[in-house]
Amino acid sequence: xxxxxDPIYLANGYRDVVSxxxxxxxxxxxxxxRSLDKDSIVLPPRQKPLYAFELQxxxxxxxxxxxxxxxxxxxxxxxxxxxxxxxxxLNYRATVQVMSEHCIRVSLECQIFSTMKTKNLLEQPLSxxxxxxxxxxxVAGLKVQATFIxxxxxxxxxIRQCNVFLVSLFISQLEFQFPLAFSRVCRLxxxxxxxxxxxxxxxxxNSAIMVPRLVKIISDDRTATTCYRIIQISSDRRKLARLxxxxxxxxxxxxLKHSCTYTSNHADC
Length: 269
Hints:
It comes from Lachancea meyersii CBS 8951. This is LAME_0F18184g1_1. This protein is of the alpha/beta class. It has a domain at 2-175. Helix content is 40%, strand content 25%. The protein has nine helices and seven strands. Strands 1, 2, 3, 4, 5, 6 and 7 form a seven-stranded mixed β-sheet that branches. Helix 6 runs antiparallel to helix 7 (211-220). The longest helix is centred in the middle third of the chain and has 23 residues, at 155-177.
């Protein structure tokens, strides 16, 4: 099942670099009759003892008038490689690959949810409590397709627009709909509370049946979103004043950044 988002259009200040961005998330579930709903606990692909399933982010680049240059594709790959700490902060091990002349893939190996952990905390309690509506769903992939209107765009502007789109996609959609996969704060809170889930459940019910509901509570906490934290900081005049005192200002989030070295291989950048 795919969850698609509305297309987004971006442009630079001169309106001479315009792009259309389409995105969708692939979701896997054992219950094909039910769509993604409020009872879904959405996790990234789980690790297995000898290998890991990976969450894949595919970025496809197109131009409406001509083919995308290999320089642009390579620059995107370099830009993603230069910001791997973003994924590390989300507790993913990330690798970047150029799949074709217009496609880059970021493979994300989750460092939090293993197969055994998911089985003990979620799958076994849910299998016992058949009457519970909660179910596990897996985010398998995120696909982003960018179409630049006109000629192949300058590398710095193309990367800037890609970063703007990806950051806005995370903040406005992914953190809300798939927090245990894409929200840094939510994933961190799970790590912090993981050791307490079992004891709390046994204290209340003398069994592990409450663990899935506790995980769902962590997942549904909207204070674990960037939007909430921005509003929280904006409403605190003291914090806002301290931030404004920084000479360099507040650095925006970067999922990729322009890191092109001007060599003969990047003459068109």
